[in-house]
Amino acid sequence: MISKIKKILNKKNKSKIICLTSYSKNISEAIDPYSDIILVGDSLGSVLYNYSTTRKVTLDQMIEHSKSARLGIKNSLMVVDMPYRTYRNKKIALKNAKRILKETKCDAVKLEGGSLIISVIDHLIKNKIPVMGHLGILPQSVIGKFKFKGKKNSERNKIFNDAKLLEKIGVFSIVLECVESTLAKQISKKLKIPTIGIGSSKFCDGQILVIDDLIGLNETKVRFVKKFGQIKKNISNAAKNFSKEVKNKKYPSKIYSY
Ligand code: KIV
User: Fold this and answer.
1) 107-123, pLDDT tens digit by residue?
2) Domain extents in the chain
3) Exposure string (b/e) for 53-62, b if CB count within 10 Å is 16 or more?
4) What is the Cα–Cα distance from 72 to 142, expressed in whole angstroms?
């Protein structure tokens, strides 16, 4: 049987790779038929808990949300973010990655960074842990405002070289977060593994968005987010209608009662 990772690799230059985040069972169930990869991202820190930074997200939080998300995933490849400081050296990274895989039954983990953490990623891969890379804006390293990456030549060279390095040691794909379009295009052309863009142009091999943003459940004004739904409004309307019917004693009528 062809592995889920092989399927993702085979899509390079053939069809776009669809990635979405999920932090829970019901969302996973809804998006699984339309996703190639479902990521339990540490963006859950800001999206669900209002944290000012993803650095506050704990390994236990990631594992609990991942266990829930897993329940709704049948076909997609499931990737879990390793939170801040859980991969600060090889030994700690391997112990935590093994725990994530064992407890959540995910297929792979994602780590933020290039050359600085290359020995850690190499160690995970040599120990049979599938890894997805993440370059460009690295939210776990940013204090304050996020700025897109690839304006200066030195920055472009660093991201380009990091991408080649990650591919060389065996990551199966790389998320490019807010990387300038022409640089994202160059990287995607150069690499044999797929790039997954977020705010990094249509030239990437796939795209990822935070599901809460794209369905209009989470309020965000980030430039790259397109709202494909109005779920918060739908929820409010349902709550409003429920409230109205309860107050008017219309609900629960006989058929909804024992
Ligand atoms: O944490 C996350 O959700 C992510 C994606 C937005 C790429 O890393």
Assistant:
1) 999 999 999 999 999 99
2) 4-227, 230-258
3) bbbebebebb
4) 32
Q: Half-sphere exposure of 113 toward its Cβ, with a 13 Å CA cutoff?
A: 18
Please name which of 196, 164, 76, 172 lies closest in space to residue 124, comparing C-alpha atoms. Answer: 172
Is 167 considered catalytic here? no
> Cα separation of 15 and 244, whole Å?
47
43 C-beta closer than 6 A to ligand 1: yes
pLDDT at res. 206: 98
Whether the CB of 179 sits within 6 Å of ligand 1: no
CATH of 4-227, one of 3.40.1260.20, 1.10.1040.10, 3.20.20.60, 3.30.70.141: 3.20.20.60
Q: Which of 177, 180, 219, 245 is catalytic?
A: 177
Calculate how far, in angstroms, residue 47's C-alpha sits from the geometric centre of ligand 1.
Answer: 11
Q: What is the DSSP letter of 57?
A: -
Question: What is the pLDDT confidence band of residue 257, given thresholds at 50, 70 and 90?
Answer: very high
Which residue, by CA, sits nearest to atom 3 of ligand 1?
A: 41
